[in-house]
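Ticket #4471: structure output looks truncated?

Reporter: J.K.
Steps to reproduce: submitted the chain below (149 residues) through the standard prediction queue, then opened the result file.
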Amino acid sequence: MSNALKLLHRIAKIREEQTVSQFKKHNAQLRQAEDFNQQISNYVQEYEQQMVETAKKGTSVAYLQDSTSFRNKLTAGAQEQQQQIDGLSYATQQAKQQAMEAKLRAQGIQKVLARKQAEVVARQLAIERSELDDSYSARHKGGSGTKDA
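Returned output as attached by the reporter:
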């Protein structure tokens, strides 16, 4: 039973490490995507400001139409990226939940294993104490052993 528990605990620890690693991977991807999306959003804002400044100076309608089209494509890309971020966020939450479940499972098995090991140690101590008491009482009775002939 103890060997089976040790094996289960080892498997649970491996699974815990895998799920934590997966969570960290998803979390890093999420942060990277969020940073990239923030850069795109900042660039769109800067581009819009440049368009306004250029329009104030007087430019051709074709240039403004091209600029507006480019800005719209950037905005659409940022919105599409946000959908991917939402998916990554969900995957990250799921990975975090799995990592927590794996950690709790490993801790539970560890507690059972520790309790079983404590029971074995307590049993061994009780046996040793009983043997010591038997030996002590046998020595004090004096009737044990062989008599002189």
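Triage note (M.O.): checked the attachment and the full token line is present. The domain at 2-138 is CATH 1.10.287 (Helix Hairpins).
Status: closed, working as intended.
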